[in-house]
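Cont'd.
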Amino acid sequence: AQTVTQSQPEMSVQEAETVTLSCTYDTSESDYYLFWYKQPPSRQMILVIRQEAYKQQNATENRFSVNFQKAAKSFSLKISDSQLGDAAMYFCAYRPLGQGGSEKLVFGKGTKLTVNP
Amino acid sequence: NAGVMQNPRHLVRRRGQEARLRCSPMKGHSHVYWYRQLPEEGLKFMVYLQKENIIDESGMPKERFSAEFPKEGPSILRIQQVVRGDSAAYFCASSPGTPNIQYFGAGTRLSVL
């Protein structure tokens, strides 16, 4: 069974600094998607960034970028120039890509990010 | 284009009552997914539906829980005879097809007294 592990229950960062959130996963599949979702206090789940496993290039969305290491099954999220609005729970998630594969997302337990002014 | 709409936002039930949670997917989306989030936990998959069909219910408890996505109207997650352990946030997501991004609603927080 696929599992996703986020080893940092909490992290903090100073405003304008950079922070990296860790995620590792376990799968026997070769093709899959990886995601980072953000959950602010409003509870709304917001997609931050996604990565297709067959792409070697790391995904980037403005201040958010990932370091995808397929062999190590690692998928970390880097937030640059942190802003107060980045404070939230961050969830790493996995989903297989192949035809007939389950469409379900498998989530980690999350990392609570605090941004200090 | 309105997002995924879930209602109610907060639902309070006494033990033994029924809970009905509604989810209206984004316009044009025919795939719906339900997830449950227990306190201090990530989301756990429950069920995946397309219009009038259950595709994957591997995460649904065998008893008391059911889901539907009729041809017309919202998807419904129904929990019969609720117990305190059912207290959680229930999230719905939708997508236009597979494989595709799942867009989430704001969730329904169920509290069982």
